[in-house]
Design a protein that fits this description.
0% strand; 18 helices; MFS; MFS_trans_sf; transmembrane helix; mainly alpha
């Protein structure tokens, strides 16, 4: 058993133990067999989860790897950030056109095309080291990753029973988080060869891609027709009327994740925190998010998605406000970020589960699509707002902008979430 396997087992064990403390009963982390109807569903679920983990791995690798390569080549930080935005721009560009092929051809072909696009793009990075060529490749990876996530999210939510939906989506988020956290460990390989990390990541993607061919294709529930881009935007309106409030958590997490990983390092270095300590601070937040993904998802199955979301958003406000007070003390800040990760690291997966609770089955593909759009918008806005805050606000802590956002989102869900969503007519 290698080091990474041990780390993953420890994290999963801690996650399981944490849930035991709160619920007072034994739960074995890999004993999911009794919750699925048959072996076919079990195999499908774990193949989809494996694909998502590899997708997280490739995304987690690209962000620091390309930033370090460009920094070494003297590329400005603004252009570096623009290149990183290519992935999210790709997601936004492809989003209106994703639903038609999913409904017409089913989940499997969309996953195959998305996986092939990601794996091939990763393999092309060493071919030509150019800013704009790499920007286009990142844009293509954004398109491919969105196809993967859109299809796998919708497929998992469609066959997951309501009583276990939060748990299943949390496992989805958990393994994406593990992959995302392991991805940056590929960065040191750049000292051996700049091409090596891209080749290894591409190889992993091709392996995960190969497992998709063992799955039988299925299609979403076809009670509505997908005939034009206009009808797609009609369904955007329908889903937004049902479940607009469920898009707030994915937007919040996109804003939070991109701000923490993109803007906070700049703020921390300007405060005089060493680069090695900044890395530990970011890791503490990521580990906290991984550990509590599964317990929060299962608690949301038991106590309701809205109730858990309100608790974690309010906790996030308190913890980030505390971080603003104690930001000069690295040890206390590390603890607070770890706790904040435990609290708010599940907002994306809980948002998907919340949307699924509020949305009719035939509109789930559209709902999952809009969750991805909300996350991407948050990811694009987060670093920009964070950068402006750092540039023009000298007297306030960077964590103030995050804590205020948490409080606003808590207030919206607490007030509007108690009202029943109005029921629109479904356009065909």
């Amino acid at each position: 058993m290698d080091c990474y396997e041990k780390i993953m087992i420890i994290l999963l064990s801690i996650s399981s133990s944490t849930y035991n403390i709160y619920c007072g009963r034994r739960f074995i982390i890999f004993n999911y067999w009794s919750y699925f109807m048959d072996k076919k569903l079990r195999v499908r679920f774990w193949i989809l989860v494996f694909i998502v983990a590899i997708s997280g791995f490739s995304q987690g690798m690209l962000l620091p790897l390309i930033a370090i390569i460009f920094e070494g080549d003297g590329v400005s930080s603004s252009l570096n950030g623009l290149n990183a935005a290519g992935l999210y721009i790709g997601i936004l560009l492809i989003s209106p056109f994703m639903e038609y092929p999913l409904r017409k051809y089913g989940y499997k072909p969309v996953i195959i095309i998305g996986g092939l696009l990601v794996a091939t793009s990763l393999l092309l990075f060493p071919l030509w080291k150019s800013f704009w060529f790499w920007f286009i490749l990142r844009l293509l990876i954004g398109i491919g990753d969105h196809a993967l996530h859109f299809s796998t999210q919708t497929w998992i939510t469609s066959f997951s029973p309501e009583r276990n939906r939060g748990r299943n989506i949390s496992i989805y988020g958990l393994f994406f988080g593990i992959g995302f956290a392991v991805g940056p460990l590929m960065t040191p390989f750049v000292h051996i060869s700049e091409s090596l990390p891209f080749i290894i990541s591409s190889l992993f993607c091709f392996i995960a891609w190969g497992f998709v061919f063992f799955l039988d294709n299925e299609q979403p529930q076809q009670t509505i027709a997908v005939q034009s881009l206009k009808s797609t935007f009609h369904r955007f309106y329908d889903v937004s009327t049902y479940a607009w409030i469920a898009f707030i958590p994915p937007f919040s997490y996109g804003f939070l994740e991109s701000s923490i990983n993109g803007s906070f390092p700049v703020y921390a270095v300007r405060m005089g925190i060493e680069v090695s300590s900044v890395s530990l601070l970011l890791t503490s937040f990521a580990v906290g998010a991984i550990i509590f993904q599964l317990p929060l998802g299962m608690l949301s199955d038991r106590f309701g998605r809205r109730n858990i979301l309100m608790i974690i958003l309010l906790s996030g406000f308190i913890l980030f406000s505390s971080a603003a007070i104690f930001e000069q003390n690295v040890n206390i800040l590390m603890l607070l970020l770890f706790l904040a990760g435990m609290a708010v690291g599940s907002t994306f997966s809980l948002g998907i589960s919340y949307m699924t609770d509020l949305t009719p089955t035939q509109l789930l593909p559209t709902g999952n699509l809009l969750c991805g759009v909300a996350f991407s918008l948050g990811s694009l806005i987060g670093p920009y707002i964070g950068g402006l805050f750092i540039q023009y606000t000298q007297s306030l802590s960077f964590f103030a902008v995050i804590s205020v956002m948490m409080l606003i989102n808590f207030t919206i869900i607490a007030y509007f979430g108690r009202h029943k969503m109005s029921k629109p007519s479904i356009h065909s």
